[in-house]
Amino acid sequence: MNVSVIGFGGIPIQGASFEEADRIFAKALEKGITFFDSARAYTDSEEKMGRALAGARERIYIASKALSRTAPKLAAEIETSLRNLRTDTIDLYQLHSVGSTPELERVLAPGGAYDALVEARAAGKIRWLGLTGHSREVILAAIGTGRFDTVQFPFNPIETEWEETVIPAAKKAGVGTICMKPFAGGAIRSHALALRYELTRGMDVVIPGMDAIAQVEENASVGKRLIPPSEAELVELRAVKVQWGEKFCRRCGYCMPCPNGLNIPFLFLIDGYYTRYELRDWALARLAALEKKFADCAACGECLKKCPYGLAIPDMMKDASKRVI
Ligand code: SF4
Ligand code: SF4
After folding, report:
1. For residue 239, what pLDDT is reported?
2. Most buried residue, 41, 64, 203, 255, by most Cβ within 10 Å?
3. Can you tell me the distance from the alpha carbon of 38 to that of 50, in angstroms, rounded to the nearest whole number?
4. C-alpha radius of gyration, the chain, whole number
5. Span from the CA of 117 to the centroid of ligand 2 (angstroms)
6. Contacts of 36 (CB under 8 A, 6+ apart)
7. Is the pLDDT of residue 31 over 70?
8. What is the mean pLDDT of residues 186-195?
9. What does DSSP say about strands 8-9 and 176-180: parallel, antiparallel, or unpaired?
10. Whose CA is closest to atom 2 on ligand 2?
11. For ligand 1, atom 2, which residue shows the shortest CA distance?
12. Whose CA is nearest to atom 4 of ligand 1?
């Protein structure tokens, strides 16, 4: 794949109407964006991409992903993605959010979701195979298998840990790196600077989520002339990292399991969407489906020993319970 360094992340477009989405995607094409990433889990995101991008199919790359972990289920997801995206071939299909080493082993075992990727590629329904996740161990292991063409993970001026081992390993193995959460879920305000940081530190393509024409214009302009951050800009970014460092959940899952049944990283994801994105209904719907919510944290402190980033998890749960539910 030879893609524009600025790609299009397909989460926020869920909040736009189909007509607005048409205009936003048209602007992305006009500005030279050629990589579009969606997911089965992003409600109507695939459909909006399929409708708006059908006329440009030959000159762009489309990626999607699904959470299914068995071959038959993933095969069915691929069929749905093909229909939604109005195409005969999806360029990149990814195993979405593989969260632990046992889960990676499960998808790679006979009958696991990876088998469906291989079959779909043999049938010409997809072209390249990828994996996405938040755990450095899992992404590193996935690179090490030699069975994935790309890996997608959150890298930004707050979540810099990936520079230590994962990015160099991907480079060495020739595996493409796709940067999700380039603005750390809304925590970073200097968008152009963050994108320059990520792209000049080894990421092949960044996929900021976009739901407005102005965002497309701002993000796409970064790809025209890539300049590494200056010393003064790095100081600014380090200050952002310090500001958020101890209250920013990386969704690595090291704190799990919670003895009281809370899905800690998912709850913090919901809180992030509620407070930093304008996807409040989405967040509240996800929260309503959970049995254990922020207020169910018993402050037992078990998770505190396990979070490598020193997050004050019970305090954060308490704060979120006041903000959200
Ligand atoms: S402090 Fe709260 S979130 Fe952490 S393990 Fe205990 S109950 Fe779970
Ligand atoms: S709370 Fe800490 S350990 Fe748990 S997912 Fe977030 S960053 Fe990882």
Report:
1. 92
2. 64
3. 10
4. 19
5. 30
6. 7, 8, 10, 25, 28, 49, 53, 60, 61, 62, 63
7. yes
8. 91
9. unpaired
10. 307
11. 297
12. 303
